[in-house]
UniProtKB/TrEMBL annotation:
Originating species: Pseudomarimonas arenosa
Cofactor(s) listed: Mg(2+); Mn(2+)
Pathway stated in the Swiss-Prot or TrEMBL entry: Isoprenoid biosynthesis; isopentenyl diphosphate biosynthesis via DXP pathway; isopentenyl diphosphate from 1-deoxy-D-xylulose 5-phosphate: step 1/6
Listed name of the protein: 1-deoxy-D-xylulose 5-phosphate reductoisomerase
Gene Ontology MF: a single term: manganese ion binding
Amino acid sequence: MTSVAVLGATGSIGRSALDVISRHPQRYRPYLLSAGQQVDKLIELCAEHRPRHALIADATLFSALRAGLSARGLSTEAHAGPVALAELMADPACDTVIAAIVGAAGMPSALAAARAGKRILLANKESVVMAGDLLRAALDEGGGELLPVDSEHNAIFQCLPTGSRNAGLRPDIRRIVLTASGGPFRGRSRDSLREVTVEQACAHPNWSMGQKISVDSASLMNKGLEVIEAHWLFNLRAEQIEVVVHPQSIVHSLVHYIDGSTLAQLGNPDMRTALAYGLAWPERIDAGVAELDLVRLSRLDFEAPDLQAFPCLRLAFEALRHGIGGTTVLNAANEVAVSAFLQRQLGFLDIAEVIESTLNAVSLEAGSCVETRLQLDQKARQWAQADISRRK
Ligand SMILES: NC(=O)C1=CN([C@@H]2O[C@H](COP(=O)(O)OP(=O)(O)OC[C@H]3O[C@@H](n4cnc5c(N)ncnc54)[C@H](OP(=O)(O)O)[C@@H]3O)[C@@H](O)[C@H]2O)C=CC1
Ligand SMILES: CC(=O)[C@@H](O)[C@H](O)COP(=O)(O)O
Ligand SMILES: [Mn+2]
């Protein structure tokens, strides 16, 4: 029996993960469910899935969590805050960690799980973008194993020789292609995006996801973050990573080999496939996802991304060339700008402008420990926030 911690259980990935886990009660048991602030939703999930532990990140909600679990007659133990989370990550009773907290907030727990030698199913791409080097070191230190859950990286992993993670160092691989849906604004000019609303930006054509990643998809920053994620997960240089727009989101990504073969992974756009793959690897289990109906699909389209209309993708490639300091600043500025957009304090086009001004203003010196990385993250957030205030 594999004991699974679902970090970010109340989110979109959390929901898909719990669906797959509950399809295989003989194989997987929920060890921990965690949430940021939605304490009532967390209690509901605990009543349904009966984990050993529940954790709320916001420590002011600890009493509400404990009282809610007890009122339901549940034996689930209540916890709160980052220290408790790091301790639970180190518990030998936990085998697998699904890292699905959104944003930089997911970085400490991903590192703790890696140091503790767990199998990590990584959805939280922001932690790789700001700490890919630290995550690699933590995996080496703890003997942990990382399985990519982001659909494109999961596809690349499936197209590589079994268990291979160093695609960039293999002489038989030319490069990889990450597919992008193009988001809800595909085909539009930059100027036409000036007045788009939060609702329009969050209406992804193919995937049902949390608000932050939905806005990232709309700006193509999601693909930029994924380019950086691929760099760290597969040891690839920027020149070895291509982005192609594929509006149907059926081909999840591809690997070009030197003999002219291109391997791709296809499937309906449903994150349960990648989560089931990560949970069971190297075996496969039912994910509840329907088989592709190729005749009904009938066609698959591909086009080049429009970097004029969507400069965030260009900014991500530039940040990657500056190294981990550049990508840490890019990520922090993007999180602040997207949050301001979601609060209707910033226009959609301003997101890229805030990121570019932050990259130009903040020194990109990252250091090589968690503390200096968090300091740089904070510095970038402060600059981005001040820039947003100046624009109001
Ligand atoms: N959704 C998808 O299909 C995909 C998502 N991803 C990545 O997975 C991650 C999660 O995405 P998604 O599920 O869509 O996001 P959601 O917004 O749906 O869920 C986010 C989860 O993180 C929790 N959370 C938020 N802030 C904090 C915090 N400060 N501390 C601890 N927990 C927190 C939330 O808790 P609460 O509900 O209490 O706020 C919630 O459980 C992101 O990094 C995203 O880029 C990658 C590929 C696909
Ligand atoms: C499901 C998933 O992995 C998302 O990251 C998805 O790729 C978003 O779609 P875009 O291709 O529009 O960014
Ligand atoms: Mn993705």
